[in-house]
Amino acid sequence: MKILSRFMRIEIAIFILVLAVIVLLNFVQNSYSSSYFATCILILLGLLTSIVLPSLLVTWAALFVLLFGSFIMIFGLVYVPNVERIVLVLTFPIFCALGIWIKYLVGIRGSALSAKDNISTYISHINSVTKLKNRKNAENYFMKYIKFIKDAMEKNLNIEMNVTCIEWAHSRQFKIISDNEYREILKSISDTLKDIRTPDESIFFIDDATF
Predict the structure, then answer these.
(1) Which of 83, 151, 205, 211 could be a cystine partner for 166, CB 3.0 to 4.6 Å?
(2) Which residues of 116-151 are buried (b: 16+ CB within 10 A; e: fewer)?
């Protein structure tokens, strides 16, 4: 239930926004029909302001409208009922706040989806234990290097590539006995290879404890 509520936050916020619009417009239309058009404009301006402007400017705009509107309604010659005054003063700030809330939640979800894509991409290319690129990356690397060597040979250039394969003998049996120890040793081997490699060397982890 907690996970579902987190996932549905944007939908809940939009539902609250729609419900607020319906309730407010219905109330104004039934009780203060003369202010219906003004209320619609204030709702629209509040939402547009929260979408277009940065959150800080929206906050200042809402505070300015709230203070200026309150001053006019209290000290100005405005011949409208008190409840109608409150509605007109609070409509813009309230819908600014709702707009900021929804924009914030949309940004959160967008960041989460982007992070999820980045994590998926990372997992598909990097082994989680050794933190080394996997077999697929090794194949792509060697195919490009072989093509480069062939092109160089056609130009009578002498280029060599040295490949070393390191395999942990009896690793499968060790993995069956203790999977945690198996992972720790793989990580230790990976760290050692990273420390001793030269800057122009690349290390890949092939399945079955082969580097």
Answers:
(1) 211
(2) eeeeeeeeeeebeebebbbeebbeeeeeeeeeeeee
Nearest Cα neighbor of 149 from 162, 167, 168 is 162
186: number of Cβ within 10 Å = 20
C-alpha to C-alpha distance for 39 and 211, rounded to whole angstroms? 69
Per the confidence metrics, is the pTM higher than 0.70? Answer: no
CA 129 to chain centre: 25
Cα 117 to Cα 134: distance, rounded to the nearest angstrom: 18
Do 70 and 134 lie in a common domain?
A: no
**Residue 105 and residue 43 share a domain:** yes
* Counted domains in the chain: 2
Q: How far apart are CA 202 and CA 82, in angstroms?
A: 75
Q: Percent helix, strand and coil across the chain, each rounded to 5? A: 75, 5, 20
Direct distance between the N- and C-terminal alpha carbons of the chain, in angstroms, rounded to an integer = 44
CB 24 within 8 A of CB 112: no
CA-to-CA distance for 195 and 200, rounded, in angstroms?
13
Per-residue model confidence as pLDDT tens digits over 17-44: 777 777 777 777 777 767 778 778 877 8
